[in-house]
Amino acid sequence: MIFRIPSSQQSASRYVSPFSIRPFKLFYSDSNPPLNNDVDTVYRIVSSSSSSKHLTQSLKSSGIFLSNGLIDKVLKRVRFSHGNPLQAFEFFQYTGNRKGFYHSAFSLDTMLYVLGRGRRFNKIWEVLIDIKRKDQSLITTRTMQVVLARIAKVCSVRETVESFWRFKKLVSEFDISCFNALLRTLCQEKSMKDARNVYHSLKHDFRPNLQTFNILLSGWKSSEEAEGFFEEMREMGVKPDVVSYNCLVDVYCKGREMDKAYRVVEKMRDEELWPDVITYTSIIGGLGLIGQPDKARDVLKEMKEYGCYPDVAAYNAAIRNYTIAKRLGDAFSLMDEMGRKDLTPNATTYNLFFRVFYWSNDLRSSYSLYQRMIYSGCLPNTQSCMFLIRLFRKHERVEMALQLWNDMVEKGFGSYDLVSDVLFDLLCDMGKLVEAEKCFFEMIEKGHRPSYVSFRRIKVLMELANKHEAIQNLKEKMSGFGSSTQLSGDGEKHTETSDPNSLNVTRVSAN
């Protein structure tokens, strides 16, 4: 059942759920952006610098004015091209140490993201302590979430919570918004069980508010657990809003409890909280789960009749229903309809098809769709790349795999770490040493360490080709990541030095 939305409440836009806040995106801008060629020049200087002294001299000799806008763009490029975190850190420190200069919030959060992705956690605290002395207002809950998300990806819940408490000495107000940032991080990077346990252990230190409950409600998979938190919310006198009810609708739809979902929608209407595009998207997904993709498509039409217009996520939900049902003709029809409605398909849209083509071993359709994706200007994400590279590996299509890799290097998408292992397996199996060596060095230049499995495979090929100088070059490049490779007898083993920046999140004092 669909309900009419009063004109005062109608909106074609999608708000962001407190749980599904997308991984750190950059929303700041500069009113006088520098010329693109200046950004290119500075980026090349940063990415090719061999030392802090070399970086400083090159930037000074370039004569380019390093404005906030230019720095924002350079760091953004480092982030999306998976650049070397230490080179970016040197650039950030040099520009920030100029007299009278203050970094923007954009630059700070981007720098922290890059360092976190490179597991340079000591550098993160170094940056934060320095920023606190200069301009504490730049350290926001968004900053907290950037840092905690990177820590939570590789560290334990305990270490994540310890890092959270360190922010008490860094932020101007350590309040419920900070606690909510921690819970959101745990929901996204750990498990709902972890988030629930932390919530119960710390809720007496921070009085939960509406956003707290919405974050927790958004993550539950079972209706019983969600209903329990909904009841606790009411007992504390916190009134549910549209987000709260949408969380409950979503749980019911994912649990195939469509009758309960519709009853919640009825209750929303009774309380004059009108269903929005997220409500309908959940219903579309739920109808697909119970095998009613055509009825779900009808919801797209009904939405528009009641003043709530579908967005990309709503169309993706409807397309997913048809791909699950193996009705690709209907799925592509909806994708074409998106274009007519001025909605641009995203990587998630394409992945719905890539998944079907991968499991049906359809190489031709996968590569054709990839070409269409690139031509349309939609960059693949890591999931897209993995569907493709595994299929290329299976069919031993070196040229296709190299095209994907070259696009990744040129356009800055996908995970080098994950894709490279499959790519090097393919190249080594096919005896493509020149290509493997080229890709190996490209990965290192981007600041990513190839796996030791890949290193050993390429090294064996080099030994067979008597390329001893190239082997030494590879070892030197790998040692730049704080590791050493040793030969022992007729076999090989490697040992890694302890990198104090890798996982240590508690050594540097925030005082």
UniProtKB/TrEMBL annotation:
Alphabetized UniProt keyword annotations: Repeat
SUPFAM superfamilies membership: HCP-like
Spans annotated as Disordered: 482-511
Residue spans of biased composition, Polar residues class: 498-511
PPR repeat extents: 241-275, 276-310, 311-345, 346-380, 381-415
Entry superkingdom: Eukaryota
InterPro entries noted in UniProt: Mito_RNA-Proc/Resp, PPR_rpt, TPR-like_helical_dom_sf
A family per Pfam: PPR_3
PROSITE patterns: PPR (PS51375)
Family, similarity comment: Belongs to the PPR family. P subfamily.
Protein name as annotated: Pentatricopeptide repeat-containing protein
